[in-house]
Design a protein that fits this description.
Elements: E1 2-6, H1 16-24, H2 39-53, H3 57-64, H4 73-83, E2 85-93, H5 94-103, E3 108-116, E4 122-126, H6 132-142, E5 146-151, H7 157-162, E6 165-169, H8 173-178, E7 183-185, H9 188-199
Amino acid sequence: MNIVCLDMEGVLVPEIWIAFSKASGIPELSRTTRDEPDYNKLMKWRLGILKEHGLGLKEIQDVIATIEPMPGAKEFLDELRTMTQVIILSDTFTQFAKPLMKKLGWPTIFCNTLEVAESGEVTGFKMRVEQSKLATVKALQSIGYETIAAGDSYNDLGMIRASKAGFLFKSTEKIIADNPDLQAFEEFDDLLAAIRGALDPFN
């Protein structure tokens, strides 16, 4: 049995923190897992900037409400879900993801949770499990699934390499250059064709 595991930000929807960086006028917040492989370090740094500027969950959610999926993302997901099971594995948070999942037709997502004070200040974050994407892929494999994975960032490489087939999608030149053995795609049609081939190697 196969299951496809996809990253969310940078693959299906634009990067939330980059959008918030532009909306808030705080360029430092544009840093993502494409730039910083250590997610805990990145999030602690982000929370420090939010506190410094007096920004909370509401301000971020207001920006998220304006974000649309990447052109073709919903159609890609819809078609892929006719072929196999799909789970989105993301290091984002439940408080961010819901409106985006609605726009994508409510696919299944495994992500994390923010700790938020009554004032709306984001005081911390709770990761679902350490190395959540790789851990989830290994757990799925332990119950009989063969995984196929795609993502764009450093924190996707673990699940991509642990899967029977894995692809980079809309990644950076550096990540692509550093991983020359991985197929890299820019268009949803090409990624769909590659996944279809991995699902049915005799096709």
